[in-house]
Amino acid sequence: MINELVKKSVFVDEAKFSQDLEVYSNKLTALQNIKKEIKKFIPNCKFNDEFFNNVLDNFYSSLLLKYKKQNTLNLRAEKLAELLEFDLSELKKNISDYENVKDTVSPSIDSYTLYAESDDELMRLDLCEKLINNISEIETKAGVKAYPFEVTRAFRNIVNFDVRKNKYLPNHRWIKDLRY
Description:
Blueprint (H helix, E strand, L loop, with lengths): L7 E5 L1 H28 L13 H12 L10 H7 L5 H13 L11 E4 L2 H24 L5 H7 L4 E4 L4 E4 L1 H4 L5
Antiparallel strand pairs: 1-2, 3-4
Helix pairs in contact: 1-4, 2-3
């Protein structure tokens, strides 16, 4: 019987989460850079979510609106920007950067976390935790150092050793019964 109320975190893919968080951060930076560039040319420009669906067209529409009185020849926005000697190269670069990451959503750590949910998975996690606790207890009470290479070789399917954190971790692949 699956216990749906209990689930314990087994593994968090921190590297992938950090990578996706950086991509999302790049998106936010690109948005800020776009706004900053547009504010140079149109100081009171209003931004909403639809504005960023097609930034350049919306910029040109706002430009035409701002210079409506001065644009007596009904010039196209591109020509008007050229006549006003606006250098749009930085804006276009920022728009290009944004286009590469615009579909990125804010990552949630839960999306990168594996949970032990079934009774079998919870039992395996419990066994891993007991093994890790026993190794730690033997090291402290007996004064014997368990070498991580030897321990992980002996229990290669059950525990892993994280060198960066200097500690044993449950093997999420064994807990979730994933194939190697």
